Amino acid sequence: MSQEQLRPVKVGLLGIGTVGGGTFTVLSRNQEEIRRRAGRGIEIAMVADLNTERAKEVVGDAAQVVADARAVIANPEIDVVVELIGGYGIAKALVLEAIAAGKHVVTANKALLAVHGTEIFAAARDKGVMVAFEAAVAGGIPIIKALREGLTANQIQWVAGIINGTTNFILSEMRDKGLDFDVVLKEAQRLGYAEADPTFDIEGVDAAHKATLLSAIAFGVPVQFDKAHVEGITKLSATDIKYAEQLGYRIKLLGIARRRDNGIELRTHPTLVPMRRLIANVEGAMNAVLVQGDAVGTTMYYGKGAGSEPTASAVIADLVDIARQIDAPAASRVPALGFQSNQLSNLPILPIEEVITAFYLRLRVADQTGVLAKLTGILAEQGISIDAVIQREADEVSGEDGNQTDLMILTHDTKEGAMNKALTAMQALPTVLAPIVKLRKEELA
Fold this sequence. Notes:
Elements lengths: L8 E6 L3 H12 L1 H8 L3 E7 L3 H8 L4 E3 L2 H6 L5 E4 L6 H11 L3 E4 L2 H18 L3 E2 L10 H8 L5 E7 L2 H13 L3 H11 L7 H4 L2 H15 L9 E2 L7 H9 L2 E12 L2 E12 L11 E8 L3 E8 L3 H18 L30 E11 L4 H11 L4 E7 L11 E8 L2 E2 H12 L9 E5 L4
Parallel strand pairs: 1-2, 1-4, 2-3, 4-5, 5-6, 8-10, 10-17
Antiparallel strand pairs: 7-9, 7-11, 9-10, 11-12, 13-15, 13-16, 13-17, 14-15
Helix pairs in contact: 1-13, 2-13, 5-6, 6-11, 8-9, 14-15
């Protein structure tokens, strides 16, 4: 059958908000280019949205608009269901119902896949349909495809990414303006960079969802969000951002997945990154992901991690992939996680105590002889090697008298468990006058 005779792929959109509207717009604008690439047309035939009036304003007469998502799933003419509702609840039910009805699924829902991906991918495999999710991580950056296909010759060693634009915007503003977190969050909400309820972003959950998906594709393991270590940026102070800068580092919220001999590190937290690294200079709401492969070395992927048309770009790329493979036998399609389903590894996710990384410590201490010797002695007892020690003179510590000073200690790589033991002993010293600040440091070399 020639390409001209191939019937178009018919798509049903569940949700026509920011991303759904962008998907309809970009698909309409670039339909001829997309058809040339896919080898057949891709048509949005149905749209389900509770706000049918708004939906009709977007699609006009080009697609049937309904309020009930299940009407889309029940339509035998629909080949692909695009889920853009979000969340774990109704979205999960609808995705599983679409798979059960023999529909392929495209989703931008990182939370759903990070928590329930194993169940969803298994259901799709049993039914012989595809689940595609490029838009779930880093918006318009094709990082899923890069990991799953472009770097398939490599053993991936680690992945580290700025994969939440809200927190990166807040950190950039804190650094630029010297303001504390609470002040900048209010400004981010006013400008529309942060939601009215920003919890998932600022507590690191959104980035951890995405890091979970990246770890599964990088290392061929099941998605295991429940085992990820998650920290946000709410406790970061302008003081530490300033000191990090003086030491040649920027603080970024990174999602990190790293292969070790005994398991996989899966963690999201504020991280000191050397200023000379490209990723340290990613500012505002932009996203960037570094991938280290044994053959290719380090590659970096940069771009818009959110927004109507950038995310739509990823949704439509998934639709094109499905259109190209829709008539192929299930066994010859690209697996959802890049590894054959019977070849997934049982390499465990390591507890945070087993993670190996370097640290930045900030201690408010009494300005007395012998304090530093006691601190370095405690670190030495745990086998922790010091990279650098910097002291800020008393008059540089704002609002304090001359009897107190700030010490910054940078360490070499060590196990987190050893560092926690050292911190407990250090905090107990009478000359340590405030809670010790501990941040992780990654060279990403």
